[in-house]
Write a structure and sequence with these properties.
This protein folds into 2 domains: 123 residues, Carboxypeptidase-like, regulatory domain (Immunoglobulin-like), CATH 2.60.40; 126 residues, Immunoglobulins (Immunoglobulin-like, Sandwich), CATH 2.60.40. 12% of the residues lie in helices and 40% in strands. It contains 4 helices and 17 strands. Strands 1, 4, 7 and 8 form a 4-stranded mixed β-sheet that branches. A hairpin with a 5-residue loop joins strand 2 and strand 3.
């Protein structure tokens, strides 16, 4: 009898510790068996121009650091069955769409009640934009004469539709700039033409607010992006993930930050 009691105490202590690698709370073993319920949500898929997709099936939804997973149906709905109570990080992914996260979801499972995630998650197809060039030109003398210095940045890419697209620019103080190695980033809207009316203007004071200095060489690389603001911070690496970026970025371009 004493051995049985000791074993139960060991199980209780071992199963009620928090994971040190993520935000999941590991539930007490006995209560976990009593308090199980479903988790439900909705994921909406969009094309590159922001149109809702008619078929939203095939998105894999999984609980981090587990083998528990499911897939969305054509309506985008998903259900994880009979999950013990606890706090979970949930990931979702689909080929061609990148990834997403639902972090720190508390699942009470009281009286086997389903946890319904009221806010739908959105995913846009990965950008297909292939940026062939970044044209960087200083502000004109007329603009500089009134005391404002900076640069125009025009991403150039093929755009048969003529509709404005989104591009994300990454800046650094070294030539190895990329979506994972940068000091600052900004998302802009552009039509991809070399002589566009809506070229993007970045003032010297903007760069100074990011820690750059007048006369400094700045390196920039551009990636096509979706219309969604879908970036998130990976809780394990503490790095920002940009799930919808194109895999065909521009070459790295450098410029000297204007200003006296």
């Amino acid at each position: 009898m004493k051995k049985v009691i000791v074993l139960l105490i060991i199980l209780y202590i071992g199963c009620s510790k928090d994971s040190s690698n993520n935000s999941i709370t590991v539930p007490n073993l006995i209560l976990a068996q009593q308090n199980r319920a479903n988790i439900q949500g909705l994921i909406v898929l969009y094309d590159e121009d922001g149109n809702r997709q008619p078929d939203m099936s095939g998105v894999t939804v999984s609980i981090d650091n587990s083998t528990v997973k499911t897939k969305t149906g054509p309506d985008g709905k998903w259900t994880l069955d009979s999950i013990p109570y606890g706090t979970y990080d949930i990931s979702y992914a689909k080929e061609g769409y990148g990834t997403g996260k639902i972090m720190g979801l508390y699942h009470a499972a009281t009286n086997h009640a389903t946890t319904v995630i009221s806010k739908s998650e959105s995913m846009a197809v990965n950008s297909t934009i292939a940026i062939t060039n970044l044209i960087v030109t200083p502000f004109s003398g007329t603009i500089q004469a009134v005391g404002v210095s900076g640069v125009h940045i025009d991403p150039i890419f093929n755009n048969p539709s003529g509709k404005d697209k989104f591009v994300r620019l990454f800046f650094s103080d070294n030539a190895n700039v990329s979506m994972s190695n940068y000091l600052a980033e900004v998302k802009i809207k552009t039509n991809g033409a070399s002589a566009q009316m809506n070229d993007y203007n970045l003032t010297t004071s903007f760069f100074e607010s990011l820690g750059f200095k007048k006369g400094q060489t700045i390196y920039v690389k551009g990636y096509g992006d979706s219309f969604l603001a879908d970036q998130y911070t990976n809780p394990l690496t503490n790095s920002v993930v940009f799930p919808s970026l194109s895999n065909q970025p521009s070459s790295t371009v450098s410029f000297v930050l204007p200003g006296k």
